[in-house]
Amino acid sequence: MDIDTSINYLPVYQALDSPVRLEMIDIISHEKITATQLAKRMNISKAAISKNLHILENANIIKFQKGTDNRQNVPCVNIDKISINFPQQIFPDYYKKSYDIPIGNYFAIEDIGPSCGLATNTEVITPMDDMNVFFSTHRFQAQILWFTQGSIEYIIPNEIPENGKIELLEFDIELASEFPMSNNSWHSKIGFWLNDTFIGATELPGNYSDVRGRYTPDWWPKKFSQYGLLNHIRIGELDTSIDSVSISNVSINDLALHKTRRLTLKMAVLPMDNDTYGGLTLFGSDFGNHPQNIKATVFYSQNDHGLD
């Protein structure tokens, strides 16, 4: 039985507000017993038993049916549970939208510097080390891209309903630093912005070529970057984290995402302590160790009752 806090369900609350009636429910839930037998069992007058059974029946908690002899009516439980729906939902249902963003489907780049370049799963997009290659029409087929300095920005639509509220954002991206050829111990510092708000930074430990990436095509030279590390970025109620380690106190509520119809993720190479730039390499579904592009997931709730 589904009930709420309206007066319509007052008989249910009243029926349950009695130790005697609760005991009656327990007895008739486990055995078939007549009102007369129930009165003897509970040492209560038959009139009192009849009154309390009527209250339970009026609340639709019990019903009467013919006994085995088809003469006497036997009370039996009519429900197996009662759920109470309160006016305000404390823990709202979450919904989600997922987006697969090819790494070449960026909307903005800025101050890209060499070494830099892009490649599809079959060839390098030329010329290398020229930032103008990032404007090539072939960039949409890119499966790996890299640059030593600069920033890159991706956009996804904010498609949640008008009565929706974004509760959590997640991005999964395979990343490495950038070094000419490759260097497993080459560190880089990467900053992240969500809708132009800085949400934190992380350090990438290397640009890896010790083994071939699981999905890196055979034609790609072994001495070049082979794979990265999968970074799980989460912007939640309390903070922003990468792989469950907090990188800032920026929470989802700080971003006022209900005011915009798009979500932008910007990544930029930040200077290290010695003013060097360690670069950034992004891997698509056909390069590296993880068969995915940039994966974005939006978790949201819906204000179905029009309540704040």
Automatic annotation (TrEMBL):
User: What is the protein name for this chain?
Assistant: Helix-turn-helix domain-containing protein
Q: Which SUPFAM superfamilies match?
A: Winged helix' DNA-binding domain (SSF46785)
Highest lineage ranks of the organism?
Bacteria, Bacillati, Bacillota, Bacilli, Lactobacillales
The Gene Ontology terms for molecular function here are: DNA binding
Name the keywords, alphabetized.
DNA-binding
Asked if the keyword Cell inner membrane belongs to this entry, the reply reads: no
